[in-house]
Amino acid sequence: MDEYTFQLANQDEIPDIVNIYHSLVGTPGCTWDLDYPSKETAKLDVSNDWLYTLKMNDRIIAVASVGDYDELGDLQWKPENPCELMRIGVRQEFQKQGIGTILLKHIINISKEKGYDGMRFLVSKTNPAALALYDKNGFERCGEVIRYDIDFYCYQIMFDCCKEIVDGYYVVKQLNPVNPYPDITKLIKQDLQDISTKPIQNFQLIRAKSGVYVYNCLYDGNPAVVKYFEKANDRREILNYHILAQHGIPTIKVYALGKAAVVLEDITASVNWRLGISEDLSDVDVATSLAGWYFTFHENGIHVSDLDALYFEYAHITEENLNILTEKLPEANELFRFILNHFNKLHELIYKPSFTLTYNDFYWVNFVVRKDKKAAMMFDYNLLGKGYRYSDFRNVCCSMSEEARTAFTTEYNRLYYEKHGCSRMCAEKLEQSIDEVASVLFELITAFTEFERIPNWATDAINEVQNGNLLSKTEYLLSQYCDID
Question: 182-269: which CATH topology?
């Protein structure tokens, strides 16, 4: 009797996995080619614990990747905390034997255990075997989309064993009673024991993504949320909480800061505060309160002693990365040749404005609002860094309604004038002119250096390059501030 084994892939198995990918190129309905999926794709999936294998008698016969890719978040889906299924393939000699169904059942089970409430993915309209597999196994065909010049159907499934408890960022999906990551909760307790004797217990997993684990818990009897950072680079958020506290910038109540874990007040149990909702982006009272928080954040952020050491998005604009863009976007050769010819001037200009703390990740799921709407503040500081005030303005205002946007800028400018006796008009004009160029370059660099396929969110930046707008803005910027004709 054949014996099947489902498990995470390891680095030693990557050559065999890539061979499976390549063996399926050219088969009916397959949208892959010899460049994608690649060895690098498999390496990334393995490093993130996203790539799984199904073996029969110790031979890999099928593969699939499932994880937090977030490449489909711009589409409409039912699950609120879904995983995404990618790169599923069965060796040709094992097709039409029920292997795909066996693999899917294992994938669904492991996704449930990790706390997801559903799964989403795309299937080519020209792949009848795959369409039949998902239709047969209870997946819902829920839409259509064109990506990478390919017509896809959108598929999703809700996991009915998951129970919704709260909305917003802290979306909790009640798991089975078994803690799926007992080693992590043990590490959390050990980390916090070094700073406090207060008990932490009753862990309920909210989500686990790329080495960041978020739990509901009780901390010294208080409802709390604990975040644990497995990777050293992600622990910068703990440092950022220290920085904000040292400079009098309001945050959610912090119960404990360890070396790898932070314990925060559970806003869903708060008497005075609530999580943000999408309607807040059109609420002038919330916008006005957010302006007050951002003003304090920026004003006090100027005085951070180690500001220069913080993350700066535009530091990625280097000659090396611009040369990569030249290769990736040959139709924009004139633009990148102009920028490279004047790179030193552009680099000097990028560092000319005054820096302060910048949040860099505005959206309604990342803020809390006092229930009387007289205060609001951002939380989740993993992308906090240094930069221009205008960069935060852009991130905030592009998400808000026109009325809310006006309320935000009016209140921020009022507070600035009240403190300084003047406006920021000149400083903001410089920041905006630089930002209109640098933000597009940063998006392009991120899209072409960190993703194998160009993300949908990079479309506007690519259009700015192709229609000549970015070249015009760059020429104007350098002519106005660097005397370059």
Answer: Phosphorylase Kinase; domain 1 (3.30.200)
Helix axes 402-420, 389-397, angle to 10 degrees: 160
DSSP structure string for 199-264? -EEEEEEEEEETTEEEEEEEETTEEEEEEEE-SGGGGHHHHHHHHHHHTT---SPEEEE-SSEEEE
| R_g of the chain computed on alpha carbons | 25
Whether the CB-CB separation of 227 and 261 falls below 8 Å is answered with yes
- List per-residue pLDDT tens for the chain, 485 residues long: 457 899 999 999 999 999 999 999 988 888 888 888 988 889 888 988 899 999 988 899 999 999 887 778 777 788 878 889 999 999 999 988 889 989 999 999 888 888 888 899 999 998 888 988 888 888 888 888 888 778 889 999 988 644 333 333 333 344 433 456 788 999 999 999 988 889 999 898 887 777 889 999 999 999 999 999 999 989 999 999 999 999 999 999 999 999 999 999 999 999 999 999 989 999 999 999 999 999 999 999 999 998 988 989 999 999 999 999 999 999 999 999 999 999 999 999 999 999 999 999 898 989 999 999 999 999 999 889 999 999 999 999 999 999 999 999 999 999 999 999 999 999 999 999 999 999 999 999 999 998 877 877 888 899 999 999 999 999 999 999 887 66
Q: What is the arrangement of strands in the sheet containing 273-275, beginning at the earlier edge strand? A: 273-275, 367-370, 376-378
Helix (H) or strand (E) run with residue 346 in it: helix 343-350
Please provide the CATH number assigned to the domain covering 273-482: 3.90.1200.10
Using the structure block, give the residue that is written with the tokens 């909702």: 277
Alpha helix positions (H), 360-424: 389-397, 402-420
Nearest Cα to 305, choosing from 385, 243, 389, 354?
243
Are 36 and 85 spatial neighbours (Cβ–Cβ below 8 Å)?
no
Sign of CA dihedral 304, 305, 309, 313: positive
Query: In whole angstroms, what is the distance from residue 58 CA to residue 241 CA?
Result: 48
Structural domain boundaries in the chain: 4-158, 182-269, 273-482
Q: Which residues pair with 225 in a beta bridge?
A: 216, 264
Q: CATH topology of 4-158 equal to that of 273-482?
A: no
According to DSSP, the β-strands at 118-124 and 82-90 are parallel
Tokens representing residue 396 in the block: 């905030």
The architecture that CATH gives domain 4-158 is 3-Layer(aba) Sandwich (3.40)
Burial code of 161-186, b = ≥16 C-beta within 10 A, e = fewer?
ebeeeeebbbbbbebeeeebbeebbe
Task: Please name the residue that has the structure tokens 């690519």.
Answer: 462
CA 450 to the chain's CA centroid: 13
